[in-house]
Amino acid sequence: MNKQGINSAPAIIALQMCSGLNPDDNIAKLKQALQTLPTARPLLVCLPEAFLVFSKHAGDTLLVSQRIEQYKQQLSELCRKHNIWLNAGTLPEPYNQHKYYAASHLFNNQGNIVASYNKIHLFDVEVDDQTGSYRESDFTQAGDEVVVVDSPFGKIGLTVCYDLRFAGLFNALVRKGAEIILVPSAFTVPTGKAHWQPLLAARAIETQCYVIAAAQYGVHENGRQTYGHSLMLSPWGETLSEKSTGLGFISCTVDLNQLHKIRRDMPLQSHQRFREPLL
Ligand SMILES: O=C(O)CNC(=O)[C@H](CS)NC(=O)CCC(=O)C(=O)O
Predict the structure, then answer these.
(1) Which residue, by CA, sits nearest to atom 19 of ligand 1?
(2) CA separation (Å) from 123 to 91, 161, 261?
(3) Which of 105, 165, 233, 265 lies deepest, with the highest CB count within 10 Å?
(4) Average confidence (pLDDT) over 49-72
(5) pLDDT digit string (tens) for 96-141?
(6) How far from 243 is each of 14, 183, 248, CA to CA, in Å?
(7) Does the C-beta of 215 come closer than 6 Å to ligand 1?
(8) What confidence score (pLDDT) does residue 8 get?
(9) Which PROSITE patterns match (predicted)?
(10) What domains lie within the chain, and their CATH numbers?
């Protein structure tokens, strides 16, 4: 590949972050990280769930949702400036006066949003005595649409965090043509230790897709702790890149010829006997 990255293999990077309470601080961290991008193009940058605001109270996130357009504008400008595609983790998109969607947008390198997915499975879970319980559905409206979009990297399927536990969604994404599945996340530490890596590997192996999981890590300003371990897997389930903790990028390149060889040699979709309805 030459210096400008023209004709280079499509590359993907995932930014691991420890987002705080203030959206402007989180955007500043993102801008700083984008100063050190690789030169390869096309380049897709993937951000973790809730990268813009990791709040103490859902009401604060609701307030951010009411001025989300200004942040989408800034992200759009960053895409144009750096000539990148961007999966903006999740952003809170207004639903009504009490709830927002956990929306995963894909921006192209002209700064246009080409696909949007609203998190379908919401984290209403008792984790453990120390971590406590989550009631995401109290403040988040669940989505109801399976989203796959074509891109220079391949066909991209969108999911978010807790969706990872629901193989039916991933199977639906493959049936809609997905080749790369993004899983922006903010896993808890106990559930991450027990389930994160095996779930991601299982989804890559059973969907025969690249699986790209940008994660939140560390102790956040709101007092919560997240598991980190951002991970990229090949359609064969191999780990391509991972980062246990700390701010920074991991990266991989996409080889769709290899993906199609894996699917030709082991045609799981045509062997599939269970075709459940989509929702
Ligand atoms: O709302 C925010 O600020 C950020 N979002 C989250 O932290 C979300 C919803 S509460 N977390 C998860 O889905 C964890 C899933 C998980 O840990 C598991 O499946 O084990």
Answers:
(1) 162
(2) 16, 9, 36
(3) 233
(4) 97
(5) 999 999 999 999 999 999 999 999 999 999 999 999 999 999 999 9
(6) 10, 15, 8
(7) no
(8) 80
(9) CN_HYDROLASE
(10) 11-264 (3.60.110.10)
